[in-house]
Design brief:
With 318 residues, the protein is of the alpha/beta class. The chain is built from twelve helices and 13 strands. It has a six-stranded parallel beta sheet with strand order 2-1-3-4-6-10, sandwiched between helices. It has a three-stranded mixed beta sheet with strand order 7-9-11. Strands 5-13 form a two-stranded parallel ribbon. The two termini are 29 Å apart.
């Protein structure tokens, strides 16, 4: 079908992937500059608005409600459908292990409540909206997410560091696949309901399975280590970002997966990239290489001390 799409947050992870996918599918792609553009004007003539805006955790309370109002107003004036990358924060600690389109949103923590209220605002607005819900991202470029900043940070030393229980399943989404799904949903927009909650199943992997997949992509053994949360716990009383990281820590030990039933109903011919191919593309695209590990000292005593990664950037993607 094609059309015109306005990308909000094109420099972010989902916004960038969506812009690439829409362009490859033959859409006219517009980019929004928050410093120079007027959103209502920019949205005029757009068929779809992709809301990829993602402020840091410590700015959510102050910015997400206003950004949501702006997007709804622009979509209402232009008649555009809105696609929002949803997350799993809305479900809460006591939610079932498999999230589908009907799983209640019962999170009580601050970040979860902000996302619940954001989605409810879209639901009540009357604006055609798709919440394309996914787990943590596997990207094809280095980012400030958990995978790159924490899990893969020790590859030169032959380590894979996991921030939770490595034996519990965790939801992941390969960004190029998720972006392709967004395009496919946009192209069938006239057939969609006014509000669609579409879980994107992606991959469900334990920490061990993820570590094994990464090791296979390198053709090199990796030692699985547990991430030390103590520094964040100690700093959290004085560091707001740290408090938010602790707030969402349960997702690294709570078993969870996304049910793909609704996506399958809407896009029965959609084919996901095999997980091993996705991991290989992610590592290659992020410019990791097997030589990183080939250079790694074999003796722990010979390891060069490294500067710790900044934890301020280590957060889930939404």
């Amino acid at each position: 079908m094609g059309g015109t799409v306005l990308i909000l947050g094109a420099s972010g992870r989902f916004g960038s992937a969506a812009a690439d996918a829409f362009w490859k599918a033959g859409w006219q792609v517009r980019f929004f500059d928050r410093k120079a553009d007027d959103l209502d004007s920019a949205a005029m003539g757009a068929d779809v608005i992709v809301n990829g805006w993602n402020p840091p955790y410590d700015q959510w309370a102050a910015t997400v409600p206003d950004l949501t109002r702006q997007v709804i107003a622009a979509a209402r004036a232009s008649g555009a459908m809105v696609i929002v990358p949803g997350n799993v924060y809305v479900f809460g600690v006591d939610a079932p292990a498999c999230f589908d389109a009907d799983t209640p949103h019962r999170a009580t923590n601050p970040l979860g409540r902000i996302r619940i209220e954001m989605e409810e605002a879209y639901r009540k607005s009357g604006v055609k909206t798709v919440i394309l819900r996914a787990g943590d991202f596997i990207d094809t470029a280095r980012s400030d997410g958990w995978l790159d900043k924490i899990m893969l940070a020790g590859l030169e030393r032959g380590r894979f560091t996991y921030p939770g229980d490595p034996d519990q399943p965790h939801a992941w989404a390969f960004l190029p696949d998720m972006a392709r799904a967004a395009v496919a949903l946009a192209e069938m927009r006239h057939q969609l309901s006014r509000f669609e909650d579409v879980p994107f199943p992606g991959y469900t992997l334990t920490g061990r399975e993820l570590a094994e997949g990464v090791a296979s992509a390198y053709e090199h053994r990796l030692a699985l280590r547990r991430f030390n949360w103590l520094p964040i716990l100690m700093l959290s009383p004085f560091w707001r970002m740290g408090r938010h990281l602790i707030e969402m820590r349960h997702l690294w030990s709570k078993p969870h997966a996304l049910d793909g039933t609704r996506l399958g109903e809407l896009l029965p011919e959609f084919e996901a990239t095999p997980v091993q191919d996705a991991l290989s593309m992610a590592l290659n695209g992020a410019q990791y290489s097997q030589t990183d590990l080939a250079r790694a000292p074999q003796s722990a005593k010979a390891r060069e001390k490294k500067t710790p990664q900044k934890l301020s950037a280590a957060r889930p993607e939404f």
